[in-house]
Amino acid sequence: MKASKFSDAQKAFILKQGNDRVPVADICRKAGISQATYFNWKKKYDGLLPSEMRRLKRLEDENAKLKKLVADLSLDKEMLQDVIRRKL
Does any domain span residue 2? Predict the structure, then answer.
């Protein structure tokens, strides 16, 4: 996945402008983002501080690594069970 060119503080500032009743079209034009990006950020980060956003990102990264590890271990287990079945 492509890394964002916006820092967590910048995302928080952009979302805060939306809470201050600034029109979304103006916010997106000034920031150089699409409205879809704005609403995706709003859905994911609305109400979070930059430090909380970083923590959320770290947790998501750790979760992805753990899911990959579980998938690899499950595949290894399946292969070993297959070998045992063939020997019997």
Answer: no
Torsion angle defined by CA atoms of residues 42, 45, 49 and 55, in that order, rounded to the nearest 10 degrees:
-170
Task: Supply 19's token pair.
Answer: 């809470």
End-to-end CA distance of the chain: 45
Residue 57 lies in domain: 8-87
The reply to whether the predicted model has a pTM over 0.85 is no
Instruction: Determine the 3-state secondary structure of 53 from DSSP.
Output: helix
Quote the CA–CA distance of 19 and 65 in Å, as a whole number. Answer: 34
Q: Which tens digit of pLDDT belongs to each residue from 29-55?
A: 999 999 999 999 999 988 889 899 999
